[in-house]
Amino acid sequence: MENVTDYLSSPGGLVLGIEKVLSHCPDNPALDVMQSSWEYLTDNYTEWQFTTWGSLIVHEVFYVLICLPAFMFQFIPFMDRFKIQQEQPETWEMQMKCFKKLLANHFVIQFPLFFGVYPFMRMYGIDYHWNTMPRWYILAAQCFMCAVLEDTWHYFAHRFAHDKRVYKYVHKIHHHFRAPFGMTAEYAHWMETIGLGIGFFLGFGLLRNSMHFSLMWAWVFARLLETIDVHSGYDIPFHPFHLFPFYAGARFHDFHHYNFIGNYGSTFTWWDWAFGTDKQYKEFIAKGSKKVQ
Ligand SMILES: [Zn+2]
Ligand SMILES: [Zn+2]
Fold it and tell me: Residue 225 C-alpha to ligand 2 middle, in angstroms?
């Protein structure tokens, strides 16, 4: 796969064509602000602080911002028509219970995981500087590779987590909410946070020779966009993620929480299709039950 990355980065490759197309597009108006902000951080903080505290802050800020739209939808009657399990609105008690567990999960379990990333960054000499940061479409392509690997790990680990012998000890916690809402995306037993979380880092191993630190935060952003979307409880029409073929989406994962069986993939539908674990979902859709009741 390094060849794919090399190709994407090669002057004669795909990059040249993309750059040509982009030369006709307006420049990013926020580029200067982004550059000065990034350079302020690299000038004033160490790479260790970037990787650990920086990633914690970035994760928390993205989590809150991405959860915000679907959180607000509960107060907007117009949005009720897009709620998937309309009979099961999220209560304030449910949301507080979820919020408290998230705080514990994020600060006690995930934060130490970021400390584990730093030796990896050092070992492979990952660069943090602005002037070596890849163009946004290279980062997007790398995020896509990370998503494919994470989804594969997630599918098989998630199926294992549903095995009768282990389900009640770990994964049952994530299924506490049969009708999920955005915040529940990372509501899980600590062993699940670590076990399924391994998938998040697999892409870094693949891309270690061409990785820039910005991939870490770009991938945190992309992964949170995806997982909070599929747990949002709302199926919003014209959602841009559905432009990606095989993107699972909110209705697909909502069915997993509703039905417990099938639809084990996190981001894509292809593993469920390949192993037939989307059978019950397809039957459900074929019955015309567009809304889970
Ligand atoms: Zn599950
Ligand atoms: Zn879930």
Answer: 14
Looking at residue 207, what DSSP letter applies?
T
* C-alpha 231 – ligand 2 centre gap (Å): 6
The two tokens of residue 198 are 């391994």
Identity at 22, one-letter amino acid code: L
**pLDDT for 239-286, tens place per residue?**
899 898 899 999 999 999 999 999 999 999 999 999 999 999 999 998
Tally: H helices and E strands in the chain: 14, 0
CB atoms inside a 10 Å sphere around CB 19? 12
Helical H runs in 162-189?
164-167
Q: What are the tokens at 94?
A: 């449910």
Ligand nearest to the CA of 227: 2
CA–centroid distance, 93 to ligand 1, in Å, is 22
Q: What are phi and psi of 260, to 5 degrees?
A: 70, -25
pTM: 0.89
Any long-range contacts for 36-45 (C-beta under 8 Å, 24+ apart)?
A: 38/130, 38/133, 39/130, 42/128, 42/129, 42/130
Give, in order, the Cα–Cα distances in Å from 125 to each of 112, 116, 118, 193.
21, 15, 10, 27
Distance of CA 34 from the midpoint of ligand 1 (Å): 38
Contact 235, 82 (CB under 8 A): yes
CB-CB contact of 55 with 117 (8 Å): yes
User: Can you give the residue ranges of every domain in the chain?
Assistant: 48-286
Phi, psi of 99 (to 5 degrees): -60, -45
